[in-house]
Structure formats: structure tokens, C-alpha cells
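Hey,
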Amino acid sequence: MFDDVKVILADDDPLNLDMLEKMLQQFECTLIKTGNGQELLEAISAHPQVDLIIMDLNMPIMDGYQVLRRVKQDVHWHDIPVVVVTADSTEVANVLELGANDFLSKPFNLSELRHRVMNQIRNKRLADFAKDTNAVLEVEVAKRTAALQQALAKALQTEYEISLRLGRAAEFRDQETGSHLKCISQLSKRLGQLAGIPGEQCDILYFASLLHDVGKIGIPDSILLKPGKLAPEEFATMKEHTVIGGKIMSGARDYPVIEAGRVIALQHHEKWDGTGYPYGLKGDEIHIFARVVSIVDVFDALLTERVYKRAFSIEETTQIMSEESGKAFDPQMFGLFFAHLEEFHTLQQSIHTDALPITSITEMIR
């Protein structure tokens, strides 16, 4: 029927205990007889796997009411079914309210006793099985969740590496050093943090900003590497690098870093007042990532030497950019940037001082 069933009997009358023992012999269970409530609690402690308690209410030292409260309030014992034996029908409602699972009326009816005991043991075993099954399932779910998290982390790491490689490819065309990528990436993340962009989104911005100029791959060397000012038609071709970058990264909406890189590549030359390119977006129509990158990109570009210009001083850079607040730049975003100008300048200078090429994500985030 059931294996290793343990039933605790509690009654201060040895005759009642013997009678219950004889009536329960057919269950072939282990019966533990106790004479009062204190002995009953000690028996539960000594036998962790108890399937049923059958107890009288009127017992010395600790009565059935006290025992019932203790059992049902204990996190380790409250699932043990308790059948209360009573000769007073008025007590039934009280014990059921305290958590008793069933009751037996004195004098005992053999058939009723067997059915009630059988039902309680069956319910207890089913509950134990469900609990054990849930525990196993929880372990399996934890394992699967950990495996999924590892897979997602690996996928995200792959996205990061792809972003880095694409960004480096554009830099090789533009004769830039790895420090420019690292500078744009770190300064973008910091400005994003100051702007209140959530942490996970700041991480995406950190890597997606690497892709801001990836479209330069499609610009002819004669224009991309030309020293000095570009002719109007040449500048028109140069502006196409935004659209080319968007096309390179199109169709990747399931990959948050690549999708964010597409938006940044397309929009980082848009201007707050609507005079930018390629679409003439205005104000909040420009994605916040692009508004961040446009500021730090110009900041780094002005402070560093390029084939077409000398490096400007921090004073010159500050003056030029301040004049563009509310025109090229989001004025609130630029205000945050300007309020922390010393921090950004120190970070930019330190990155360019350590101007080694970036060959891996690990090196980039050092």
C-alpha cells in the first residue's frame, strides 16, 4: 500500500493507544505511541518523516490545542496531517480552525478510522511527491536558466566583437588609431550615465558607438583621405557614410548592439535644429544615443589632429562647441557634458596617451 509509513499516536490513556494500535495493524505502518503533548513533539523531532498524527485533545503537560498550534506554526512540521480524537462534537470547529486536517469521534468506528487514516496518508504522500517533483523541477529550471544566461552572454559577447571589428575596419580606412574608438566608446557611456540612461542601455551604447563611422568603408580614398577642405560635391559623397552605415547594419533588429549601431551611424550627424544630415531630423526626433555620440565625436575630433586639420586646444574646442549648443547639439545634453568638461577632457587625454591598437573586447574595456 504505502512504504515506510510513520504514524504518531498521542493519548494519556494506554487503553486507547492499544486500541488504536490494533485497529491500524492492517496498514503495516510504524506506530509511535506517546502519552502527552510534550512526548508527541519530541517524537516528531526524532522522526523527521512523519506521515500522520492521531491525538487526543485532553492530555497532561501539553494538551492537543497547544500541540496543534505548535505543529501548524512550525515551517518544518505544518504539512504533517493531524487527526484529532474527541468525544465532544463542539470542539470540532475549534480544532479545524486551528489547522487540524480531520477528526475522529469517540467511541471509534473501525471503518471510519481506516478510511480517514487512509485518506490523510494518501494526501500526505501526494503532497510529498509534488514537493519533491517541484524541487527537482526547480533544480532543472535553475540549470537551464544558467545555461541560457551563458548562451545569451556569449551571444552578446559575439555582438560586441562584431561591433569592434566593424569599427576597426572603418578606422583602418580613415587612418585613425584604436584610441579614437576607445575614446568615443568610453565618453559616450559616461555621458549616457550622466543623462540617466539605464545601465543596460549604457552598455549597449558603449559598444554600439564603435559603429558610428562604419559607413566610411564605402567612401572613396580620394575623398576620405583628402587633406584640406572638401569640395561641395566631395562633401556630398562624404555625407553618404551615414546612409551606408545604416545599410550595412540593417535587418538586425534582434541584435540590440547592431541595431543601436545602425541608428547611431545614421543619426550622429543630425543636428538639434534640423539642419543636419542625412534626413534633417530635429530635436527629440534624433535618438538619444546619436545625440550623445555627436557631442563626444566632435569633442574628440576637434582635440586630435586629422589629415585635414590641426589639433585644437581645449579652449578653442570649448568655444566652438558652446556656440553649437541648441544648434548642432541637444542643449540639455551639452549642458551635462560641459558641466563635467574637466572629467571628459582628462579621460580623452588619458586614452590618447595610451594609443595602442585595440585587438579584442578585453583590451577595449581595460
